[in-house]
Amino acid sequence: MKNVLIGAVVVSAFFLAGVAQADADLAKNSGCLNCHNVDTKLVGPALKDVAAKYADQADASAYLAEKILKGSNGVWGPIPMPPNANVSPENAKVLADFILTLK
User: Which listed CATH number (2.160.10.10, 1.10.340.30, 3.40.30.10, 1.10.760.10) goes with 23-101?
Assistant: First the structure.
C-alpha cells in the first residue's frame, strides 16, 4: 500500500510539473515574456513581483486576467501594458493563475 501511495505522489508531481511548464509555454507564446521576466524587471515588472503584490488579494486571479486582456497603465510605472487582443479570456485566467503561483 505504501508503494502505491508513493507512486501516486510521484506521478502527481510529474503531472503538476508538466502543467507548470505548459503555463510557462503559454506565457512565452502569448508574448508575455517579451516584456516580463519571471525573476527580473524588463520593460514590465518581474512576474514574481506581480505575484507578491497580489498574493493576499482575494480576487487577484480575476483582476490580473482582466489586466492581461485589457492592458494597464500607471500601476507599475509610466510604461503602459497594452491590451492582449490575441489572448482568450480562458488563457488570460490560466496566465493569471500561473503568475500567482510564482514565488
Answer: 1.10.760.10
Q: What angle do CA 56, 62, 41 make, to 5 degrees?
A: 65
Residue 1: band (very low, low, confident or very high) from pLDDT cuts 50, 70, 90: low
Residues 71-97 have a mean pLDDT of 95
- Residues 6+ away with beta carbon under 8 Å from 86: 30, 31
| First and final C-alpha spacing in the chain | 34
7 is in an annotated binding site: no
Q: Does the annotation flag 81 for ligand binding? A: yes
Look at the block and give the residue holding cell 487577484.
60
Answer yes or no: is 62 a known binding residue.
no
Residue 31 has a pLDDT of 93
